[in-house]
Amino acid sequence: MRRYLPSLSALHAFEAAARYMNFTKAAEDLGLTQSGISRQIRNLEDFLGTQLFHRSGPRLVLTETGANYYRDLALTLDRLEEISIDAVRGRSVDTSLMIGTHPTFASRWLPQRLGSFVSSYPDIPVEVTLATPSTDFETTRFDIAILRGAGTWLHARSIELFPETLAVVASPNLVPLDAKLDPLQFSEYPLIQNAGRPSLWLHWLRLAKLSYSGRIQGTRFAHHEMIINAAVHGLGLAVVPVLYVREELKSGQLHMPFGSPLRSDDSYFLVYPERKSHNPNIIVFRDWMLRGIRRDSMEPLKANF
After folding, report:
1. Taking Cα atoms as reference points, which of 154, 184, 144, 156 lies closest to residue 168?
2. Please, are residues 36 and 28 in contact by the beta-carbon 8 Å criterion?
3. Contact predicate 206/265, CB 8 Å
4. Which of 9, 17, 113, 190 could form a disulfide with 26 if both were Cys (CB 3.0 to 4.6 A apart)?
5. Quick one: the chain helix, strand, coil %, rounded to 5?
6. Closest CA to 113 of 242, 291, 304, 303
């Protein structure tokens, strides 16, 4: 018998539109036109005989049927992708470990430590990819994630690793090492903005208990890796997690002319889906990570950075 299945193209279009809640972004993701996405979803709704989206002007809202269909479809597409990868590389995805984290964390903190895990567990292939604090742990393909936040993610378990601490950093070429500055003098220098965390300067001002009513503007970069590189080259002052710039501070490429680091409201957490909580590879990585944190002793980082 012929299976009662819609086209894979229609399913891809719906999954992307539901994930972004935006036809334009779904089209960009899949390399289609917005009208192409709309047509595929209309075909899918006709096939199923039910409406998947409410359309209210430019806004999209999933119907109850659409929300349930998206949740189950995302898991099914993930599984289809997994068995396809199995066929290509000749081993089960279940034997591997997919780690999601922030781009700068993935490039600066994690690689220094991940070699130890790979050496200790050579039979567990590791894949590191990008994640966001809004990751949906009910449908995500990640086995485990390292994320900054308050520790609450739906459908997930989280373990605090260490707190985030923030500081204003500068190149000695921009602010001399021996400069005697009041913290509010930050406004006299060019500033670097974080597009991903646009309120970071205001957050630092609040943590430092500084009252400032002027404008905060400057060159904007997408994430911390770009921001740190710009600060090293003297483009401006930057508010960054000290976790990411310990080497630059140690080497003298950057310094903290406006005072010691301040603990923010967030911490870094190890997060994994509830549905995968008994996955042996997750348990191995979780325990390895916690042993490493204890061994390296993050307490000095909390106190000094």
Report:
1. 184
2. no
3. no
4. 17
5. 45, 20, 35
6. 291
The H or E element that residue 157 is part of is strand 156-169
Q: Can you list the domains of the chain with their CATH numbers? A: 8-89 (1.10.10.10), 93-151+268-304 (3.40.190.10), 164-265 (3.40.190.10)
The tokens for 285 are: 């990585």
Measured distance CA(71)–CA(138) in Å, rounded: 8
End-to-end CA distance of the chain: 65
Question: 64 φ, ψ to 5°?
Answer: -60, -40
**Distance between CA atoms of 161 and 271, rounded to whole angstroms?**
10
Query: Which tokens sit at 52?
Result: 């998947």
Phi/psi of residue 9, each to 5°? -60, -40
Tell me, letter by letter, the H, E, C secondary structure of 232-250. Answer: HCCCCEEEEEHHHCHHHHH
Tens digits of per-residue pLDDT, 127-152?
999 998 788 898 888 899 999 999 99
The tokens for 92 are 């089960």
Pairwise CA distance, residues 76 & 74, whole Å:
5
State the helix-helix crossing angle for 111-120 and 280-296, rounded to 10 degrees: 130
- What Cα–Cα distance (Å) separates residue 54 from each residue in 18, 29, 59, 67, 163? 12, 22, 8, 11, 41
- For residues 274 and 94, what is the distance between their CA atoms, to the nearest angstrom? 16
pTM of the model: 0.69
CA-nearest of 6, 8, 247, 286 to 124 is 286
User: How far apart (Å, rounded) are the C-alpha atoms in residues 281 and 97?
Assistant: 7
